[in-house]
Every structure is written in structure tokens, then in C-alpha cells.
Amino acid sequence: MFYWVMKRIFLGPILKLLFRPWVKGLDNVPENGAAILASNHLSFSDSIFLPLMVHRPVIFLAKSEYFTGKGLKGRLTALFFRLSNQLPMDRSGGAASEMSLQAGKDVLNSGGLLGIYPEGTRSPDARLYRGKVGVARLALQTRVPVVPVAMIGTEKVQPIGKRLPNIRRIGLIFGQPLDFSRYYGTEDDRLIQRAVTDEIMYELMRLSGQEYVDEYAAVVKAQLAGKGPEPVHKIEVAEEAAADIAEDRDEPRSEGTGSTGKL
Fold it and tell me: If you classify domain 18-261 with CATH, what class do you get?
């Protein structure tokens, strides 16, 4: 109820009026049945604008830190995320991350729309980074299509470290659903998982026009953690980098990582 009221009556209309989001390809989101909405991740506001423009409810896997904050602000943040159809995603790796992925599978198995950021964290510099294979595992294990979603301009609305948003227009491009049925039955193959993930990232690069970096965003964030000009920014980047690096230990690597350019 809270989700519907905020989206349809209160917050949704205000955000549409202020930011005037433009949308392409919305008809690529299925009207019924399960699907994964795989998006690039430029800003905290992505998790607000994407579900706002989709007619059906979208449940996101959000980093678990949003649900465990301390003090009044932390509790209010956790409450907001729970009431706005978001689930905690533990990025520490191992069994904890597996449980988080199971929560995503439950959403898909019930016929819902699951939003996920394959990069695992916000881009520190508006470039598109190497995707994590969790999105591929979900798609192959549940046998649902993946709709690539390109967020456009949200990094200018709310850059990392900025609390209040800038009022400017943003956009969303929904690509055609990706069918990975040719890989069904091989979902435990790490090379297949990587191939599926890379295909999703290629579509995101094509739709968004972003420069692609064949490296995990966590590495760049770790480098930035000691160089950021703004203390709040530095702390936030350092915390995200630590969680991302822990998760990356479980990820397969392929030759050629660390380069920039096209997939």
C-alpha cells in the first residue's frame, strides 16, 4: 500500500513534474510474468526513477548497508527501503550473498519484476564497469528474460556524496528483452555465467552510450577512497569499495581485465 500511494499519489507525481523524465522502449517490459530489469547504476536516485516509470511494481536488490544504519537517520532509511519494495543484498560473498540471491529468485519465481544493478555499485565516474555474474545466475536459474535498462543523466542529478538532488531532466531507455534459453541447463558453468553477464553489459553500453571499463568498479572506488576532495564522499566510497572487494573474491576473472573501451 505504501509503495502504491507514494508512487501514484504523492512522491511519483512530484518527481515527474520536477525532473520531467523521458522514456523510450517502455513496452519492452512485459505486462505479465517474471523478468529481470538490469540497469546501469549512476546515482542513488536510479532506484527511485526506474520503478517510478514502470507500471508494474519493481522489487530491487539494494545493498544491505541501507537496512542496517544506526541512529534515527539509519532507521528511517531502512524503513523507507523496506516500504518501497527493496530487499537487502549482502555483498560480503559466500553464504550471505547466496541468501540474497535466493530472495531475488523468490521474487522471480512468484512472477514479479526484479531490478538489479549488474555492476554491484554506483559508477564512481559515469563510466560502465564490469558486471558481476549474479544477474546471469538469476536469469539462468529462473529462466526469465532480462530487460536492459539504461539510466541517462542521473549522475548529474545526485552525484555520490551529494545529499540534495539537482533539478534537471533525466532519461530511461528500456532495451529489448534478452533471451538466454540457449544456455539453459548450463547455469553452473562459470564461463557461461560470464558470457551472459558480458552480453547484458554490452547491451547496457550500447543503450547508454557509456564508455566501458573491463574492471570492477570496486577497484576504482578503492583508488578514489584516499583521494576524494570531500570527506563525506571519501567515507562513502571507502565503505562501498570494501564491500565490493569482498564480493569480488568470489567472481571469476577472464583475460584482458583492466582495459577500457568496447566489450
Answer: alpha beta
Residue with cell 526469465: 144
Taking a C-beta distance cutoff of 8 angstroms, is the pair 128, 210 a contact?
yes
The residue-averaged pLDDT of 206-225 equals 91
Q: Give me the residues paired with residue 210 across strands.
A: none
pLDDT tens string 95-131:
666 787 899 999 999 999 999 999 988 999 999 999 9
Residue 238 has pLDDT above 60, yes or no: no
Query: What is the four-CA torsion angle of 66, 70, 75, 81, rounded to 10 degrees?
Result: 0
33, 112 Cβ separation under 8 angstroms? no
Give 159-177 pLDDT, tens digit per residue. Answer: 877 878 999 999 999 999 9
Instruction: Give the Å distances, CA to CA, from 145 to 54, 139, 204, 262.
Output: 16, 7, 15, 24
Question: What is the residue extent of each domain of the chain?
Answer: 18-261
